[in-house]
Amino acid sequence: MRSEPDCTRIVAEPDIENTPSLRAFEAAGFVQHGELRLPEKTAVLMVRPRTAQEA
User: Fold this and answer.
1) 3: helix, coil or strand?
2) Please, which residues have CB within 8 angstroms of residue 10's CB and are 6 or more apart in sequence?
3) DSSP 3-state of 13
4) Which residue has the higher pLDDT, 13 or 54?
5) Tell me, what's the pLDDT at 1?
6) In this predicted model, what pLDDT tens digit does every residue of 11-26 receive, in sequence order?
7) Do residues 48 and 14 make contact, with C-beta atoms less than 8 angstroms apart?
8) Nearest to 52 by CA among 1, 8, 2, 4
9) What is the pTM of this model?
């Protein structure tokens, strides 16, 4: 896998009702940053910042 030095975070938007997915994202270091209303679902905005070790 090639590193992208300009990438400072990863953003995801799993469905708010998908509890297993939300738990998996949190276990991977993602943090919830609010809810999003999308045409097909209500999602949770999840953000995982890049760590110094990954840079």
Assistant:
1) coil
2) 30, 47, 48, 50
3) coil
4) 13
5) 52
6) 999 999 999 999 999 9
7) no
8) 8
9) 0.81
Amino acid at 41: K
* Distance in angstroms (rounded) separating the CA atoms of residues 20 and 11: 17
Exposure class string for 1-26: b at 16+ Cβ within 10 A, else e = eeeeeeeeeeeeebebeeeeebeebe
Q: Which two tokens stand for residue 23?
A: 């738990």
Structure tokens at 13: 């938007």
DSSP the chain: ----TT--EEEE--BTT-HHHHHHHHHTT-EEEEEEEETTEEEEEEEEEPPGGG-
Q: What is the share, in percent, of the chain residues with pLDDT greater than 70?
A: 91
Q: Which residue has the tokens 């209303």?
A: 37
